[in-house]
């Protein structure tokens, strides 16, 4: 089972890599790539980053640059043509990106052997005109992340939805706590939960949806901006993230891109959610504890 699941993830990622390399001159739509793997867009991007070591957007940009480098090294095109073929609107922007990636401007690149790139970044999949990698490497070092499988009861929560960048979710929490506090709902034993519905890698910042939630009982009803919904219910993979909230995405990537393919389990249909285990107002950022819950089928 474990090996079969791992191979399934490899095959799905390989199909994406093949499509990307074969369609570098096309618009590579993230939702279309996600559909190829049968993962939801949010799950796909986190799994891709965990398995490949970079986001899908970073991968596409880098592969296009590596193709450009190959063409320059082979004297197959001049810098201007290569810049436009790589998707850059100006030679200047292409030259900056090229220098950042290869350590020298494209005009001087022909004097260097391009394969030194694979020596600098051996962990990444690279562009090759003659072949595409016939396998997708999972991380050579298995993750030492501590993960438990937990049966999570469905939780009734009051929530406020914030649409906008995740780093602005404090507004939703302020509204929720201002409503819940006078009603005695911020009590001992209440659980504070965040549900992020979108991936900031692909969803425009002003369209990202986040629900700030607190558990409530059946006697509480929503009103105005306060809604009621159910979170959880079923089996989840759970790990604890320690540190600032802005680093949560790296933990998601490791859990979904390294642990999950080797676990023998599949992603379930329920949204991922976060459970905040200490108070960000009185806890240093490096000491913050957040439970990350991934639904399992």
**What is the quaternary state of this protein?**
single chain
Helix share, percent: 25-40%
Which fold name is given in CATH as the topology of the largest domain?
A: Multidrug-efflux Transporter 1 Regulator Bmrr, Chain A
Give the low-pLDDT segments: none
In CATH terms, what is the architecture of the largest domain?
Alpha-Beta Barrel
Order of helices and strands: HHHHHHHHEEHEEEEHEE
Q: How does the major sheet shape up? A: 8 strands, antiparallel
Distance between the termini: 14 Å
Strand order in the largest sheet: 1-6-8-7-3-4-2-5
Q: What's the level 1 CATH class of the largest domain? A: Alpha Beta
CATH superfamily of the largest domain: Regulatory factor, effector binding domain
Quick structural overview:
The chain has helices at residues 2-22, 30-37, 41-52, 56-73, 79-85, 91-102, 106-109, 116-120, 170-180, 248-263, and strands spanning 148-152, 155-163, 192-196, 209-215, 227-231, 234-242, 273-276, 289-295.
